[in-house]
């Protein structure tokens, strides 16, 4: 079975030194946290994830969920583990204290999510979807709806889902057919239709499940402007908060899928099921996007989390497995062969994973801090700026990180050779599980198109230029430091390619809008690589400062510098070929006829 060591020291580095979150005095609630509190919380989550969640990962994958007599049963041990999860209060960390939450910043919660995802992605999805449902109701629900549902969702006593997809309508929600009509009782509606691919759609972990369902009212206009969002409970809730009769909905089937077998992915049927509006009529997509954007950050964290545990185990294997001899000579003469860690290609795969994981972790922390600033900053203008930056980078944390996280898991599997293909080692499960992250919550191709079309061109790259100003600030602050030149050079090169790619797309898309789709994926990769180069440059600057101050952890900070330099030489240089790809092939892609494929 795979092992896991929570990267707690790296969390401390990102929170305490790189982002300096304890100096964010203008953010509401940040004065109530300190490093000791953060360390204690993350250590507690690490213990639960390692001791309770990890042992269930492989067995949950083998057993999967079962649909028996119309009810879904989670794998053995999940129900007991979830009960302990609720009792420990792990679902309450970042929720509103008014409804029983602890009110912690997202920048701390994001790393708790990483550890849960690393150790058992399928299990972590149950509370993950619940938090998304909480967010949508918290932002858009009426006071009555909040009082009815939020406390139970915060504690995890009840879980939540999001019901968007229909068999004929995936990303194009304008096509959905699920109907809502007024029902007997004030503010109640009867929901009828079928939804597919519903994660955590039914299970035996909690006594009630609150489904957030997109549906159309009879007077709804055509397209996405006619979609409303409804909260539809598995069991109706009485006025005193107790559970009433079963609602007229059910999981009619479980999807037979590639991975995340421990999570119940259901076909859900609603047959006049009673629900209540979340937000205003015909404004459901706006409310659902609150949940989806929360989910997109969580999905990006999945890309990082599974990549991290895969890397850890590949590194252990590479140090232990002996095969062949180093090309420059014998490295372990006392052994029959050298550990495979001596081989260049094994080192390439492992360092590529390490550089990606640590850079992506820093980027996730930055994204979460922007979200905290958007919600908590006492200066409305700064809150607005942070909100725009978080929106710009949502396709990066979801699309780029899951793309490259999946590739990292494949590399980790490759380190194991033939053993990586065998279930007992865990690598093939990691590859299967994380593959879905590139698909759900908007496929990565959709994320890339959203980035280019909505986040770059719609505001004439104003937000991108705002972020570019932060990049230039880092360059200017470190330009005079001779030791920073390798990192500055890499960041300048990649940001230069990003600027040229942006100009190319903006210029050519005016004449041929189809170029947006043809170039968007490569563009998302350029921005993602450049964003991590920005984080690694800041990391290098922070590490050098610690070494100059005489730290007692010289090995840790020297390791950061070595990894940063590798990132610039291996990762950052990829932006050049991606830019050339955009310039050379985007126009050609738009000109192919159907018969050419």
What does this molecule look like?
The chain is α+β, with helices and mostly antiparallel strands. Among the domains are: 287-441, Butyryl-CoA Dehydrogenase, subunit A, domain 3, CATH 1.20.140; 448-588. Helix content is 57%, strand content 11%. The chain has 17 helices and eleven strands. Strands 3, 4, 5, 6, 7, 10 and 11 form a seven-stranded mixed beta sheet that branches. Strand 8 (235-237) and strand 9 form a beta hairpin. Helix 1 (8-18) packs across helix 9 (344-376), helix 14 (485-509) runs antiparallel to helix 15 and helix 14 (485-509) packs parallel to helix 16. The longest helix is centred in the middle third of the chain and has 37 residues, at 284-320. It is globular and about 80 Å long. It starts with 7 loop residues before the first helix and ends in a 6-residue tail after the last helix. The model has no long low-confidence stretch (mean pLDDT 96).
Produce a short descriptive summary.
It is an enzyme of class 1 (oxidoreductase). The protein is of the alpha+beta class.
Summary tags:
alpha+beta, Butyryl-CoA Dehydrogenase, subunit A, domain 3, two-stranded antiparallel ribbon, 17 helices, 11 strands, 11% strand, flavin adenine dinucleotide binding
Q: DSSP strand (E) fraction?
A: 5-15%
What radius of gyration results from the CA coordinates? 24 Å
Provide the helix percentage: 55-70%
CATH architecture of the domain at 287-441: Up-down Bundle
Q: Strand count, sense and closure of the main sheet?
A: 7 strands, mixed
Large-scale geometry: globular
User: Averaged pLDDT, please?
Assistant: 96
Order of helices and strands: HHHEEHHHHEEEEEEEEEHHHHHHHHHH
CATH topology of the domain at 287-441: Butyryl-CoA Dehydrogenase, subunit A, domain 3
CATH homologous superfamily heading of the domain at 287-441: Butyryl-CoA Dehydrogenase, subunit A, domain 3
Helical element count? Answer: 17
Pfam families: Acyl-CoA_dh_1, Acyl-CoA_dh_C, Acyl-CoA_dh_M, Acyl-CoA_dh_N
Cofactor: FAD
Function: Involved in the assimilation of dimethylsulphoniopropionate (DMSP), an important compound in the fixation of carbon in marine phytoplankton, by mediating the conversion of 3-(methylthio)propanoyl-CoA (MMPA-CoA) to 3-(methylthio)acryloyl-CoA (MTA-CoA).
Catalytic activity: 3-(methylsulfanyl)propanoyl-CoA + oxidized [electron-transfer flavoprotein] + H(+) = 3-(methylsulfanyl)acryloyl-CoA + reduced [electron-transfer flavoprotein]
């Amino acid at each position: 079975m795979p092992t896991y060591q929570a990267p707690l020291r790296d969390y401390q580095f990102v929170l305490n030194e790189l982002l300096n979150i304890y100096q964010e005095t203008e953010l509401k609630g940040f004065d109530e946290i300190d490093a000791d509190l953060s360390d204690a919380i993350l250590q507690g989550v690490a213990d639960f994830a390692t001791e309770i969640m990890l042992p269930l990962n492989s067995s949950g994958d083998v057993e999967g969920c079962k649909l028996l007599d119309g009810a879904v049963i989670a794998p053995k041990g999940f129900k007991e583990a979830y009960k302990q999860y609720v009792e420990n209060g792990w679902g309450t960390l970042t929720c509103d204290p008014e409804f029983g939450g602890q009110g912690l910043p997202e920048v701390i919660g994001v790393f708790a999510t990483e550890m849960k995802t690393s150790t058992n992605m399928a299990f972590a999805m149950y509370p993950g979807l619940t938090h998304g449902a909480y967010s949508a109701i918290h932002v858009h629900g009426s006071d009555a709806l909040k009082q009815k549902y939020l406390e139970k969702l915060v504690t995890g006593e009840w879980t939540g889902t999001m019901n968007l997809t229909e068999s004929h309508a995936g990303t194009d929600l304008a096509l959905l057919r699920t109907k809502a009509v007024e029902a007997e009782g004030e503010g109640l509606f009867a929901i009828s239709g079928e939804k597919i691919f519903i994660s955590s759609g039914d299970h035996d972990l909690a006594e009630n499940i609150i489904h957030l369902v997109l549906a159309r009212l009879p007077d709804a206009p055509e397209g996405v402007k006619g979609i409303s969002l409804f909260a539809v409970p598995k069991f109706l809730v009485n006025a005193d908060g107790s559970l009433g009769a079963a609602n007229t909905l059910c999981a009619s089937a479980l999807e037979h899928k590639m991975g995340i077998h421990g999570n119940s992915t259901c076909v859900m049927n609603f047959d006049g099921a009673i629900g209540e509006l979340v937000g205003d009529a015909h404004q459901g997509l706006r409310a659902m996007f609150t949940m989806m954007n929360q989910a997109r950050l969580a999905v990006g964290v999945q890309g990082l989390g599974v990549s991290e545990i895969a890397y850890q185990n590949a590194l252990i294997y590479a140090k232990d497995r002996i095969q062949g001899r180093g090309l420059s000579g014998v490295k372990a003469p006392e052994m029959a062969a050298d550990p495979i860690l001596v081989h260049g290609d094994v080192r390439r795969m492992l360092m590529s994973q390490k550089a990606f994981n640590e850079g992506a972790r820093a980027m996730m922390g930055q994204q979460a801090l922007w979200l905290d600033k958007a919600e908590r900053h006492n200066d409305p203008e700064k809150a607005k700026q942070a909100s725009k930056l978080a929106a710009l980078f949502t396709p990066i944390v979801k699309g780029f990180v899951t793309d490259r996280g999946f590739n990292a898991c494949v590399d980790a599997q490759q380190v194991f050779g033939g053993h990586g293909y065998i279930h007992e080692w865990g690598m093939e499960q990691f590859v299967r599980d994380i593959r879905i992250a590139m698909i759900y919550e908007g496929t990565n191709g959709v994320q890339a198109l959203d980035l280019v079309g909505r986040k770059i061109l719609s505001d004439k790259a104003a937000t991108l230029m705002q972020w570019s100003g932060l990049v230039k600030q880092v360059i200017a602050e470190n330009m005079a430091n001779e030791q920073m030149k390798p990192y500055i050079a890499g960041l300048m090169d990649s940001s230069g390619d990003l600027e040229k790619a942006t100009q190319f797309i903006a210029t050519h898309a005016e004449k041929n809008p189809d170029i947006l789709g043809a170039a968007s994926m490569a563009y998302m990769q350029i921005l993602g690589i450049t964003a991590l180069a920005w984080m690694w440059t800041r990391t290098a600057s922070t590490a050098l400062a610690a070494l100059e101050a005489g730290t007692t952890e010289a090995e840790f900070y020297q390791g950061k510098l070595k990894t940063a330099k590798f990132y610039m030489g291996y990762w950052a240089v990829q932006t050049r070929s991606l830019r050339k790809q955009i310039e050379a092939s985007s126009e050609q892609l738009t000109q192919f006829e159907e018969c050419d494929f």
